[in-house]
Amino acid sequence: MSDVASTFRDQYGRDPEGLWAAPGRVNLIGEHTDYNDGFVLPFALPMRVVAAAARADAGWQVRSDLEDEQASFESAGEPGTISGWAAYVAGVVWALRDAGYEVPPADLAITSDVPLGAGVSSSAALESAVLTALIDLGELEIPVAERPALAQRAENVYVGAPTGIMDQSASIRCEAGQALFLDCRSQEVEQIPFDVAAEGLAVLVVNSNAPHKHVDGEYGARRKSCEEAARLLGVPALRDVAADGLDVALERLDDDVTRRRVRHVVTENQRVLDTVELLRSGRIREIGPLMTASHASMRDDFEITVPEVDVAVEAALTAGAYGARMTGGGFGGCVLALIDADRADATAAAVADAYAKHGFTAPTPFVAVPSQGATRL
Ligand code: ADP
Ligand code: MG
Known about the structure:
Blueprint: H1 4-12, E1 18-27, E2 39-40, E3 42-55, E4 60-64, E5 71-73, H2 86-98, E6 106-112, H3 122-137, H4 147-159, H5 166-173, E7 178-183, E8 189-193, E9 201-207, H6 215-233, H7 246-251, H8 256-280, H9 288-300, H10 307-318, E10 323-327, E11 334-340, H11 344-358, E12 364-367, E13 375-376
Parallel strand pairs: 4-6
Antiparallel strand pairs: 1-3, 1-13, 2-7, 3-6, 4-5, 7-8, 9-11, 9-12, 10-11
Helix pairs in contact: 2-3, 2-4, 3-4, 3-5, 4-5, 6-8, 8-9, 10-11
The structure holds adenosine-5'-diphosphate (ADP) and magnesium ion (MG).
């Protein structure tokens, strides 16, 4: 990561008042459950956005080492005023102001080692770093529990990307060595011990590098079928269908596709609860079969996987992983495998071999240590 404080000095001719960091995330289990008012269990990655920032006289200026163009705006205006990558920054300014806060004018320089568009939520990392910096610079009193919803509004309303509350919650509220058990309805969180290294384990993340195709349309279609199913079943959200009431609920639905969508969400919520139970009692290895079952459910019932992620999961399991699954919204992105720590290279090599045999673009593997959420450095 380049030295973002010196970038700030070169750009703005003075020292930053501070550095703020916010990480990308992976979701250990609980996919497409967030917008169904259900449960998720993400943890923060060591990869993060770092923002160097200082108050300014008026307006906001921002540069990112990933972008050639510097952005500057006198006012974030209403959604639609600023477009492109700077919309994530302007969106945070807008969401804060819209919630009644006096946002300090500021200059920002941003660096990041969170891969973009890889399903580890670089967008939430960017929003969360900027949000945390502006809150501190403006000495705004905003409880941590209220911050994810502000960053989410920046993304949903200002940028215009429909996402649940998970990504921003993970980037802001995760803690090192823990996974974040989040109830997406109440937004209550609980830190769940997930110190894989202490157990001789590791989580290998493999970026499939699969081209993301049709993601927005398919995401919207899944959301719509879930909402429609909840309406047919007479519940506020699919979260309200209990696992032991699943068969009865499925009998009330005529359409086979809808039935499978519901079965994914209901069983996936239960898998999150079961994973949390196991982790609470320190039985990390035993979550493997739940991860693998989650993948099968995403592949067969929710139909959001692609050959690249299915091949990576199979190869990791054949190489001895305790469990493996796609993480993120689907149609590409990353695969997680729970492995013995000394098997990271061998597992990564097995996935790379399988990709070569299938003629896929080579995958990018890395070991993910559960890391700290947004913080002032
Ligand atoms: P993901 O969140 O899965 O990485 P998104 O499409 O939601 O993918 O967000 C990626 C977008 O976020 C990028 O195209 C860019 O506009 C913006 N972004 C994320 N990180 C940065 C950064 N460090 N600098 C500039 N823009 C960024
Ligand atoms: Mg995103």
